Amino acid sequence: MCGRFALTATPEELIELFGLLESDDFPARFNIAPTQPIIVVMAADGGGPGSNLPERRALLVRWGFTPGWVKDPRDFPLLINARAETAIEKASFRAAMRHRRVLVPASGFYEWHRPAKGSGEASQAYWIRPRKGGIVAFAGLMETWSSADGSEVDTAAVLTTSANPAIAPIHDRMPVVIHPEDFARWLDCKTQEPRDVLDLMTPAPEDYFEAIPVSDKVNKVANAGPDIQEAVVPLLVPKATAKNDKNGDKSDDGQMSLF
Fold first, then answer.
1. Rounded to an integer, what distance in angstroms lies between the CA atom of residue 140 and that of residue 105?
2. Domain edges within the chain
3. How confident is the model at residue 112 (pLDDT cuts 50, 70, 90)?
4. Is the pLDDT of residue 240 over 60?
5. Catalytic status, residue 189
6. Of the listed 2, 55, 143, 189, which one is catalytic?
7. How far is it, in rounded angstroms, from Cα 139 to Cα 201?
8. Reported pTM
9. In angstroms, rounded to a whole number, what is the distance separating the alpha carbons of residues 5 and 55?
10. Which end of the chain is more exposed for a tag (fewer CB within 10 A), N or C?
11. Region 4-229: CATH code
């Protein structure tokens, strides 16, 4: 899954890539964890051909999706990921897939290769980033949860799909990547229904990411400096690709897993 990621781009870089009018001066973040605020990009009201208004805007939301029908978030599991294969059908994500698709800017994400149970071996963390550098846009879903007293909280989840052959030896899932040429179609919830963007929710090309083994410093949220991305000699080298079922998915739903 996708349980930690980083965003170290400058506001100017975000503005240029996503066509924003402005972006908050957010500091570089090397270890973004669930429940923390994250930047998402969404379609802006009033933008479009012939308009002087920007087509997209950025805002801060809580990483951890809460459906609008939830009465008390304290009694509801934290949904940081949504499976691309089932998000259209899931009650938690169905409305957001139709009306509130967003982009989640990132510099890369972290994943853990976990050894077989009983092996006694330690897990190995990896920093997975675009091979060419720069910003990657994950597919996301957003929902605004309203409490009984009228207060609102904007929340979001990252869509994941089956891992490509390069990532599969580390983990069987990876974030859905939306490429710049597809930003407009993904964010267009007025004319593009969920079935129209299914082709975008596929694994990134095999050579898109590079995986760098890093230390277990990333395991602790308090460790938030650039040193957590320094390469190390891996304790455990993944050898086998995870075997998926005929639908390209695992039998374990995993919607609520941190990793």
1. 10
2. 4-229
3. very high
4. no
5. no
6. 2
7. 8
8. 0.88
9. 26
10. C
11. 3.90.1680.10
